[in-house]
C-alpha cells in the first residue's frame, strides 16, 4: 500500500489535514475490499515512508480510523483492518449527514441551486417570516460511495444564507450543519413529518430511479435553544440506499404546531 498512485496521492496544497487525507485513503481501501478485513496494515514507519508523511501524522490517522471502527490496534502486533458496526445517523443531533456518514462512507454532494431568492409561502411560514420574504435556498443531491442517497432543499433566513454563501457549502465540499454551528445556530429541537411517496419525473431524474419508485419524504423545521427557527428543509430519501428510524424527542416550542418533534436516524444498509 503506497501513496505513489495519482489517485491516492496526498494533496499537499489542500486545507484538509494530512492525517485526515491518509485516514480517508485507508478507509476507502478497506470499504472497497482492497484491504481485507482482518488484514494487518503496514507499520507506522512503513506508512510514513510510503506516503512521505511524519510518523506523528500516521499515528493520528490510525487513531482516527480506530476511533471510527476501521482499524483495531493490538499491542506488539500492529494495526488490523476492521469494519465499523452498523450505526444510525441522528438527523438533528449535533452532527449532520456529512459528518456522520463520511466516517464510514465516501460522501459526495452535487449542489443544484444555492441562491438568495423569494421564499415559497410554505417555507416563509415555517420559518415564521412574512409572506414574500427573501431567504436562501440550497438544493442538493447527496451520494454515499457513488450511490445517490437523497435529494434535499433547505430554506434558510437571509441572515443565515449570507453566511452560507460565503462558506464552502455552495461548492459541495462544506457542511451546512457545521457552518450553522460556527455561526451559533445549533439544533435544539425539530418538528418532522415522514411520509411514503413515489417519484415523479423530476424526483426520478434527481435520484436516478424509475418514475413511480418508492421514496421517503421528510419535512423538518429546526430551532435553536432560544426557540428561534432557522432552517426548514424537505428531503427525499432512497430507501434502498438508506433507512430511517424514528425516535420521539422533547416537546416542541409552544408557538409551533407540532405537539412533539421526532428525531430520526438515517443509516446506510
UniProtKB/TrEMBL annotation:
It comes from the Bacteria. One of its GO terms (biological process) is negative regulation of DNA-templated transcription. PROSITE patterns: HTH_GNTR. The keyword Transcription regulation applies. One of its GO terms (molecular function) is DNA binding. Signal peptide: none annotated. InterPro entries: Bact_HTH_transcr_reg, Chorismate_lyase_/UTRA_dom_sf, Tscrpt_reg_HTH_GntR, UTRA, WH-like_DNA-bd_sf, WH_DNA-bd_sf. Keywords: DNA-binding, Transcription, Transcription regulation. This is GntR family transcriptional regulator. It comes from Paractinoplanes abujensis.
